[in-house]
Amino acid sequence: MVNVAILGFGTVGSGVAEVLTGHESSIERKADGLIRLKYILDVRDFPDSPFADRFVKDFAVIENDPEVDIVVETIGGAGVALDFTRRALAAGKSVVTSNKELVATHGYELNQLAREKGVCYLFEASVGGGIPIIRPLSQCLAANEILEIYGILNGTTNYILTRMIRAGLSFDAALAEAQEKGYAERDPSADVDGHDACRKICILAAIAFGRHIYPEQVPTQGIAGVTLADVDYAESAGKKIKLLGRAIRREDGKVCAYVAPHLVDQANPLAGVEDVFNAISVRGDAIGDVMFYGRGAGKLPTASAVVADVIDVARNMGHRKALSWEPGGEDAACGTDALASRWYVRAKAPVDALRSALPGCKLLARREGGGDESACLTGSPLTQGELEQALAGLECRSVIRVLD
Ligand code: NDP
Ligand code: HSE
Question: Which residues have CB under 6 Å of ligand 2?
C-alpha cells in the first residue's frame, strides 16, 4: 500500500481527494496496489468533509510519518509550499504538484534534491491543467530536437476573452465568473498580467531545451490592454486575439521566450480554442508540429493530472522517475529584440499617416467606423525596435504581434 498526504485542500487539493478516493479500485489496478489518502493538511477546518478524520494542521506529522510515501502539494506559491516540498523530499518522500510558480522558480533545485534522495518530483498538472504535456514532451517527443513551443497556456484569460467576445460581458464580470469556477489564481493579476503563462512557458522551455529559464528572463505582457476595438479589427482581418506563451530555440542555443497577446489567423487551430481550454503546439525536427488540447484549469481536470502522477510514482515505487535539466543563467535566454513578425497597429491617426509610417501595410476597418483612429497590419516582418522607430510621432493605442 502507498500512503498519500495532500497539502492544501482548495480547488485542486479537494479535487485530488475526490478523484483518488472516488476511483479507488481502478486506481488500485493501475497502480498495482492500493493508494490510501492518509492525511490532508490545511490551515482551515473542514468538519463537514467526508475526509474530516484525515486533517492535520502540523506538517511535521506528515514529514515524520515513515508510512507517507507521496506528498501532493496543492497550496500554491513559493512560500510555505517551498519549505514543505524541500522537507518532504529531504525526508525521502516523492512530491507531486500543480504549483507552477514553484516549479518555474525552484524547479532545478527541487529536481536536484529529488535526485539526491532517490525520489520523484512530478508536476504534470503545472502546465495545461488536465492536458498531458509534461510527460509527452519529456518522453514521447524525446527523440526530437524541439525547435519551438507556443500556445494558449492560461485558462482564465482565454475564458475572459471568450466571454467578453461571445457574451458581451465586461472584463470584471468575466473575471468574476472565472474566479467562481475555480480557474483563477489566488491573485488573479497573475493570470491577467501574463505571469501564470510566463511560469508555464518557463517550465516547458526547461524540459524542451534543457536549461532552467527563470520568469524574470521572459518579457511578459497580459491582456489588460486588449480592447473590444482590437477584437473587432482583428476579426475584420480574419484573426482572433489570443494570449500566447512562446519559446523558440535560436541557432546559438539561446531560448527566446515571451508572453504576449497575438493576432492568430482563423485557420490556425489555436483560434478555435475557447473558454477555459488551452492548446499547446510543439514543433520537433522529426515529428513536425504536434498539438495538445484540453481543459487548462479547474478542479477535476487538474486533479486528473495530479492523480496520474501519483499513480506513476506508486507504480514505480523505489524507481526514480527523473525529470531534470541544467541550471539556468544569463546566457540561457535572450529577449525578443531580434524576433521579427508582422504587427497589428491601432493609432490615433488618419489612414494616410499610418500608410506613410508603415509602407505596404494593410488597412483595417471595423463596423462601427474608426472615429479618430486607424488600424492596420504591417506588410513585412519587423522587430519591435524597427516598428517603434517607424511609429515614432504617432499616438499608438495598441500594438500586437501577428502569429504567422
Ligand atoms: P486554492 O487557493 O483553492 O487552494 C489552496 C489551499 O491551500 C487553500 O485551501 C488554502 O487555505 C490552503 N493553504 C494556504 N496556506 C496553507 C498552509 N500554510 N498550510 C496548509 N494549507 C494552506 O488554490 P488552487 O487549488 O486553485 O491552486 C493550488 C495550486 O495549483 C496553485 O499553485 C495553482 O497555481 C495550481 N493550479 C491551479 C489550477 C486551478 O484550476 N485552480 C489548475 C492548475 C494548477 P486558505 O484558502 O484558507 O488560504
Ligand atoms: N489560473 C490558471 C489558469 C490555473 O487559469 O490557467 C491553471 O494553471
Answer: 129, 154-156, 183-185, 191, 196, 296-297
- pLDDT beyond 90 at 23: yes
Grid cell locating 170: 465586461
Among all ligands shown, which has an atom nearest to the Cα of 280? 2
Tracing cell 494542521 back to the chain, one arrives at: 57
Amino acid 35 reads: I
Nearest CA to ligand 1 atom 2: 10
Q: Are 97 and 308 in contact (CB under 8 A)?
A: no
C-beta of residue 344 within 8 angstroms of C-beta of residue 374: no
With a cut of 90, say whether residue 72 has pLDDT above it: yes
Query: What would the pLDDT profile of 49-68 be if each residue is shown by its tens digit?
Result: 999 999 999 999 999 999 99
CA-to-CA separations, 51 to 31, 41, 62, in angstroms, rounded: 22, 11, 16
Output the furthest CA–CA distance in the chain (Å, rounded). Answer: 74
Do the beta carbons of residue 383 and residue 339 sit within 8 Å? yes
> Within 181-320, where are the H helices?
189-192, 195-209, 228-236, 299-315
| Ligand 1 centre distance from Cα of residue 371 (Å) | 46
Q: Can you read off the three cell numbers belonging to residue 389?
A: 522607430
Q: What is the pTM of this model?
A: 0.97
Whether the per-residue pLDDT at 317 is higher than 90: the answer is: no
Helical H segments across 285-392, by residue range: 299-315, 351-357, 384-391
Residue 137 is predicted with a pLDDT of 97
Going through 228-320 in order, the beta strands assigned E by DSSP cover 239-249, 255-265, 277-284, 288-295
Residue 192: C-alpha distances to residues 129, 167, 174, 186 (Å): 17, 19, 12, 12
pLDDT of residue 40: 98
- Please work out whether the CB of residue 298 comes within 6 Å of at least one atom of ligand 1: yes
pLDDT tier for residue 128 given thresholds of 50, 70 and 90: very high
Asked about 200 being catalytic, the answer comes back as: yes
Binding site membership of 190 for ligand 1 (Cβ less than 6 Å):
no
Q: How far apart are CA 148 and CA 289, in angstroms?
A: 9
Catalytic residue among 38, 93, 100, 200: 200
Question: Residue 44: CB within 6 Å of ligand 1?
Answer: yes
In terms of DSSP bridges, do strands 255-265 and 395-403 run parallel, antiparallel, or are they unpaired? parallel
Strand ranges for 66-173 from DSSP E: 68-73, 94-97, 121-122, 146-152
What would the mean pLDDT of 189-203 be, rounded to a whole number?
Answer: 98
Grid cell listed for 137: 514532451
